[in-house]
Design goal:
Helices cover about 30% and strands about 30% of the residues.
Length: about 270
């Protein structure tokens, strides 16, 4: 008999968060427990195969402060878990899920309370229907519609027009950053369920998003990506004029758009 989504959520939650979170925060309320309750409520709140897209995750004040201080991206991480679950359970989402972490004085330590809702306003704002697809043409169309790009060193505009983009020093990368501090294959930006994700590829100097070292991170417009000492700005959906102004505001030097995506280190 086929396993129902409700029977899958704990196993999926454990697979999605196993590793660094629980090793780092052992002995406390961990991501497995938080995400398991999140997914239980998400699945029970589905309507016509659609998961809720708005979540409030309440913790005790002590647990709330701990997670705020030690995992500032927890809301993004939990949203990604909902998206991953929707794909594995063959369910859909309207828009990227919004997750808000709150403190509730009525909860004791290690307790979690999740409220989920279908938020039409949020869905209209994002305008993206997330549902499982392996159609390469549809994926390419979705990537083009997002109109994402990178601005490197405040000067170079690089459109993200493919579902997978590799970044590194080696010439066979999609974005070549010719700098000694950048690894030959440093990072990869790839399309997953309606968003771009950046993944570090075991680089020497590490990959950072907004100053925090990451293994993998959902990209949001305005995020500052640092590869060793090279800075990249991630953006979405700007026209040519606004892109030029954005680049100019990041660097006082002349700004230009370009087609080749080879960036040379001119620091010497």
């Amino acid at each position: 008999m086929k396993e129902k989504p409700i029977d899958q959520f704990e196993a999926i939650a454990r697979r999605l968060v196993e590793g660094s979170f629980n090793r780092l925060f052992s002995g406390r309320l961990d991501m497995t427990e938080i995400s398991a309750e999140l997914l239980r409520v998400a699945e029970s709140g589905r309507l016509d195969g659609m998961l809720p897209n708005d979540y409030q995750v309440a913790l005790s004040p002590t647990d709330y402060m701990f997670w705020r201080e030690n995992q500032p991206t927890i809301e993004q991480d939990l949203a990604q878990i909902v998206v991953d679950f929707s794909q594995r359970a063959d369910l859909s989402l309207i828009g990227w899920p919004q997750v808000e972490l709150t403190a509730d004085t009525g909860l004791g330590r290690n307790q979690v309370a999740v409220h989920a809702a279908h938020n039409a306003a949020s869905a209209e704002e994002t305008g993206i229907l997330l549902r499982p697809t392996t159609d390469e043409r549809q994926i390419e169309a979705d990537v083009r519609q997002l109109d994402a790009f990178l601005i490197i060193d405040g000067k170079h505009h690089v459109p993200l027009q493919r579902p997978v983009v590799t970044i590194g020093r080696r010439a066979n990368n999609d974005v070549v950053v010719d700098a000694a501090t950048v690894s030959r294959r440093h990072a990869q930006i790839h399309w997953r369920f309606g968003r771009f994700i950046i993944t570090d590829l075991g680089s020497r100097g590490g990959t950072f998003v907004n100053g925090r070292r990451i293994d993998e991170c959902i990209l949001q417009p305005g995020d500052v990506i640092t590869l060793s000492d090279k800075s990249l700005i991630y953006g979405e959906g700007l026209d040519e004029t606004r892109r030029t102004r954005t680049s100019a505001s990041l660097d006082s030097e002349a700004t230009h758009l370009f087609t080749p995506i080879i960036v040379t280190d001119q620091s010497d």
